[in-house]
Amino acid sequence: xxxxxxxxxxxxxxxxxxxxxxxxxxxxxxxxxxxxxxxxxxxxxxxxxxxxxxxxxxxxxxxxxxxxxxxxxxxxxxxxxxxxxxxxxxxxxxxxxxxxxxxxxxxxxxxxxxxxxxxxxxxxxxxxxxxxxxxxxxxxxx
Length: 142
Known about the structure:
By secondary structure, this protein is an alpha+beta fold. Helices cover 27% and strands 15% of the residues.
């Protein structure tokens, strides 16, 4: 079992790119398709605490019931927003990656590089063709 976990949505390009970068470091992570296996309230609270971000920073608006539920209303408490994410896992932004080096919402996907204990093993380009890792396994800085 891997010591790296990705809360993944295979329909999301950012999530697919983050997963590919993890694999490019020579690791096969534990993949949690959070739409099929939601993290649950307790785990969601743990993830938020580990990331040190506000609940609203983990909410996804695009392609979700966010607007229908009027979640931009500041009257919603953090507990209520977490309950919405539990009830509607699509509201959880992705990918969230957990490694021995930390936990992070990896947007953009190359943010995962700061969490990986092992170096990249090969060149890598994102699905859109943007080069991220060079032939020596080094991050390309723009």
